[in-house]
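Crash report, auto-generated. Payload:
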Amino acid sequence: MRKRNFGIWMAAAALVLVVCAPALAQPTTLQWWHSMKGANADALNEIVTNFNASQKDYVVEATYKGNYDEAVNAAIAAFRAKKQPHILQCFEVGTLTMMLSGAIYPVHQLMADAGYTVDWSKYLQPVLGYYVSDEGKLLSMPFNSSTPVMYYNKDLLAKAGLNGPPRTWDEVGEYTAKLVAQGVEAGLVVGWQSWTMVENYGAMHDLPFATRANGYEGLDCELAFNNPQVVSHIARLQSWTGDGRFAYSGQKFQGPQAAFVGQHAALYIDSVSRIGALKKTAQFAWDAAPMPVEANMAQPLNSIIGGASLWVMQGHAEKDYKGVAAFMAFLAQTENQEAWHQKTGYFPITVEAYENLKKAGYYTQNPLDEVGIKQLMRGKTTKNSRGIRVGYFIQIRDIINEELENVWAGKKTAQQGIEDAVKRGNEQLRAFEKANK
Amino acid sequence: MIKRAHFKAPLLPYLLIFPQILVTLTFFYWPAVHGIAQSMMISNPFGGRDQWVWFDNFKDLFTDPLYLKSVGITLGFSAATALTALLLGLFIASQANRALRAKAAIRTLLIWPYAVAPAISGILWLFLLHPNYGVVAFFLKRTLGIDWNPILNGTDALVLIIVASAWKQISYNFVFFLAGFQAIPHSLIEAAAMDGAGPTRRFWAIIFPLLSPTLFFLMVMNIIYAFFDTFGVIHTITQGGPGGMTTTLVYKVYKDGFVGLNLGSSAAQSVVLMALIILITVLQFKYVERKVQYAG
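Recovered output after restart:
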């Protein structure tokens, strides 16, 4: 009799344990959908593992959801089905879409609601600026940010009797002429032409991409990159396609990178995120330099960033958001930012992380990693160099790409191509305005 | 008189086809109706704010010269792809049909490309013909002196995606044509030969008419393939470029809707595409099928 009682008690105790244990000890799971692959994904997962080990209340679950547009679409479908993740990594061109989606919880508000006082001025402003509202409030947490720089083939330059990289566009013209005369197939190639040759060219020369402070101040903005400077820059590149000083080799990075790595081109403008790939594949001496500027621009402004940021999505419980805020704070910690920057080449988001690494002599050992940051931090950020905030930006970039291709192929003059891009882009802007009234 | 079998209970046949109707309604009609509704709206992708705009999306499409250009590109591309794949498929099948040795092995090898996914086919052809790292491209440029550059030249790009799309479909056509050839009774051909008909005459007078049901079926299938399934090829090779020269209708639907999140316009484009493919198929059945001889 006693024995049986004991058995019942044991069973009851076990049952209580099974039922209550998860409720008592199970941490809250936070979903993070991202688009990082390879080495970048390893670095991301390390941050997640460290965060999960650092406390017991929350577990961040990072899931790769395909490339940027696939991840955004997955999040849209999930949001409509009320199964959205807590955090979504979204590319910079999707900023306005996310901002107006009605599906997000602005990061500055999240941090304030969770009781964090963050001194946003300690963040790298050119990075933060891309993701702030018109009043300067942070909407999404910058995560992976890069900027374009110019890579150059030291061996080919030396062969042509040239020392060091060209600083101005005039010098690029002279350098590439000498390089081509030396038998190099192409002087210059560029990746992501809309981003590097139109958006960043404009920012560094303090030229607007769009009216209304590049779109930050209203949906009624209009594209404005049809100014004489951009047009003459494109016209110059077009004239260089004739004698091989500039060669078009694709919209993204693959073509131009292959041309540079194969020594078919001596100068190559692309994101700092190419450094890793070039280290692995380039079989010659090369280096990186700031992007060329116009000779009359004594003090060029900062370049603008590309990449992605972390958006917090609405519709979760309050305690979940406490965890999201804790994770965001963890992410911004100096040592995590240092590790992220060192492993991926993407910029740290706080000034302290940069200064710390500088003090530790990281950049004397890895000067390549500092070229982009220095370019990003020079000058005082203006409304033209803070970032670009236009609707249907993806379509507009496509249009710019198409029209530039028409220019390179000689089907249109630079003036006509740029004017057409502005006209077609403005139609997209009006459609976006109508959809977001 | 033809004898017909009658089921006594009128309910049973309906019950038997019910699952199929359910599947069709759920997976074909329901999304199609949804798509048509979406094409008359402007909406926030995340849901919530939908504005009913009737035919505004369509009006915008048909006043956009680039959309009309895309229609032209699609028709040209589809015709070229289908024609190339059909002709080469027919030619290879007629040759394989006459092969004397290793028939089975040759046929198996010829069918293989069909098992390759369009995206992979695209990557393979890109590796061969990319102006910066393609082996064949180097040959074209260095040895033949052709200024081959599909990255900048729209015609080159179009040729490249037609080749990559047709290559895959040749195998599919080959299988059907070969089966068609083998279904033709030998006695007919021999009789014609004895009557003094040469190979060309035999082909046009006997083989071709007997092959026409296969040819018609493949024509419909190839056009549909070229319209819809070539997405993978275009996505991996040109992404619609350069200068929009390879943006077919399907690719534009994807770009505007999936990447650009303009759902209304994308849905309107899907509706236009649906109408277009219905029209083409109806025309084919109406005019081409008349010339098809089904009875052997």
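Post-recovery validation: Chain B touches chain A at residues 42-49, 51, 60, 66, 130-133, 151-154, 239-244, 255-256, 258-262, 264-265 (CB under 8 Å).
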